Predict the 3D structure of the following.
Amino acid sequence: MSNMSAVLKLLLLSVVTLLVSAQGWDNYQSLSESIRKHIDKALDKANANFGSHYHVAYESLLSNPKITADDFYVNVRLMVTTCKKERQKGYGHRVECVKQKSKTPWINCVVCKPKNGEELIDCAIQKDVKDRKHIRSSCPTPLDLNPSLPYRQGGASIMSQTGGDDGPQIGCPGCV
């Protein structure tokens, strides 16, 4: 009986962990107010420029947002929904609008404070983002805002094998 109890407890713990992890970046309500205020700026801009008569809503964050006392960088993915735009409800997040309208592209928005100090809100259809690098390059990157981030660009790691013979190795993942 105690084995069954332990299994049930483990199963319950797994379910709770899964539910908590699901409350991630794709859940607008679970985000902090400091992040939501920047997302709301992106929603205003995107609703003014995209979606025609349909509401544009939050979908997810595309990168880890960086917000400091002096700078910020938020990259967000938005979607055109099946909800009609309603001016009296505003362009902010609407909890009832979570279904993407078919055959509509993702919208990629960056909200940041560039080096010149003026706020930048740039929204584009996802496939056109590469053509807007000249605009977005004035934004500080997350690494600029937090230089202590342990960021490495490629190279060897403890999990890689370099040189030596090609014989069987002990202790490496996937080795025979």
About this structure: Strands lie at 54-61, 66-67, 72-84, 107-112, 120-125.
